[in-house]
Amino acid sequence: MSSRYDVLVLGGSGVDTIVYVPELPLPYADSYMIRPGIETRAGQTGDFVALGLSSLGLRTHHIDMIGDDPSGDLVRAFHRDRGIGFTEVPLPGGTKRAVNLVGPDGRRLSLYDDSRSRESDRLPAELLRPLASASRHAHVSITHPCAFALPLLREAGLTLSTDLHDWDGENPYHEPFAYGADIVFVSATALTDKERTMRRILERGRAEVVIATAGAEGASLLTADGLVHVPAVTPRDPVVDSNGAGDAFAAGFLFGRLTGEDLDRCALYGAVAGAYACTVPATGSDAIDRARLLDEVAAARG
Question: Containing H/E element for 298?
Answer without folding.
Answer: helix 290-300
